[in-house]
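Forum: Protein Structure Q&A
Topic: Joint prediction for protein chains with partners

I've read a bunch of threads here and the consensus seems to be that you should model interacting components together rather than docking separate models afterwards. I'd like to see that in practice. Below is the full input, 566 residues plus whatever partners are listed. Could one of the regulars post the assembled result?
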Amino acid sequence: MLKGTAASDGIGIGRVMLIKEHSLEYTPKTVTDTEAELNRFRDAVAAFCDNTAKQAENLRQTAGEKEAEILEGHIQMIDDPYMKGEIEKLISDGKCAETSLEQICDMFIAMFSATEDELTIQRAADLRDIKTGILSILLGIKEVQISSAPKGTVLVANELTPSMTAGINKENIVGIITETGGETSHSAILARALEIPAVLSVIGAATTLSEGDQVIVDGSDGVVITAPDKEQLEHYGKKREAFLTERRELESYRGKKTVCASGEEYELFCNIGKPDDALKATEADGEGVGLFRTEFLFMDRTSLPTENEQFEAYKKAALILKGKPLIIRTLDIGGDKAIPYLGLEEEENPFMGFRAIRYCLKNRELFKAQIKAILRASVFGDIRIMFPLVTTIDEFRAGKALVEEAKSELKATGDRFDENIKVGVMMETSSAAVIADILAKEADFFSIGTNDLTGYTMACDRGNSNVSYLYSPLQPSVLRLIKYIIESAVKNNKPVGMCGEAAANPMMIPLLISFGLTEFSVSAPSVLKVRKNISRWTKKCADDVAARVMSMSSVEEITDYLKTII
Ligand code: PEP
Ligand code: MG
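Posted by a regular:
Agreed with the consensus. Here's the joint model:
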């Protein structure tokens, strides 16, 4: 079994077709007839643009507008007068077209790759693709014809470039395996758009696998089964059928509003951890982002991200969402989320300790830099701020005061921001839940974090298997708190969402509808499932279920009953 990144859901069973990279070696020459060489270069660019436009059109039919635009971007890049001009200057100086193209492309590739911005790094990959395409034309090399791959083909390549992907006939290609590329690379985006299971970053795939080998590509779990036996083929065959049946059914909910059977409308958002995940949220048909866990911007590095780096990240997510809501949670470190370079002291009870808003209020400059970055990004979309781990009204007020301070400083420096930015509370401690009536008067919105709320209420660590039997949001105590939080928000005319895992739990949905939740925020793959589950309930039926559940006294009784009705 080979492991990689799960980049496009589903199961593909088929035979390997290896996409080998051709050697693009040539002997650099000095040219005397520079006019003829310039024409040779221009003809090659014209042929490249022509091919690319055709591939883009093909992609528009098979994958969609957004995917076609990726390829059309290649035409724009090579048509850029500056880049083309620089290449032509070298040719006019007597260098051959191949050398001139390569030198200038390599210079830009090095420049783009040196940044930390993922979009710019992606442009380097695009430019590599363009360079290969034009060099192949200049050298008269024919690319592998992916379009003529037989039925049941699993493509295996080092990297699947957008131009290769454009030739894919989705009736014939059942899986994609590459050695490079992450979840948000163009290969991944295109594979998802074409609904072809894909596992990327499988180290050694192109050398381990041989032409014609039978493999199973599990794009949901990110594994590749090599030389499967009869049992594995049977198991994955069934998994594939179940996946396809569910996908067909769920697809009918795409592009629809999130409504329950009696017509009440809900917002259905996604939880994200990186700016690029906003793309997955929109691809999944999420109506916005209900929780951006910003601590991921602070992890996996050795120093704090600057205000500007954070601004770029929040702006990027806002631009991807094109005006859809983006709730940014301020730094939630401590507990299980360690950031070594902050040098936090070891604590006996880290979950009860110096974390999240408690840490931020004591480290005002760090907190203010984040808030300023969020405020500055707020002109690029519908951004809202949310504070984690609030336990008292004073913490919330102190956080809001810091937002006001940041606003004044930004005004003084002439920076623009949304004056009316909404500031909400993540309801994830029992204390916040019990004073929901007080918090609801001053907060602009609530979002219930059931992951922590359950742990704090049940005094139970989810990671500890000895007490995990207690950890359930369907515990009567947790349900009472959730109900009280929602009712307090509703009474004060404030929106109330849920961004903990419980929001996607089918047993929870009728209860949340009955209590009056207005927004669900779930992981991207759960969006259509939750929309379907919500559509099954009328308010009246949900109220009946909730009334029965709230009269029950134990989690066993509640879950046994709810299992019978979902
Ligand atoms: C929660 O506590 O429910 C939540 C969504 O936040 P996190 O899982 O990041 O603590
Ligand atoms: Mg939490």
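Residues 291, 293, 332, 428, 449-452, 499-500 surround phosphoenolpyruvate (ligand 1) (CB under 6 Å).
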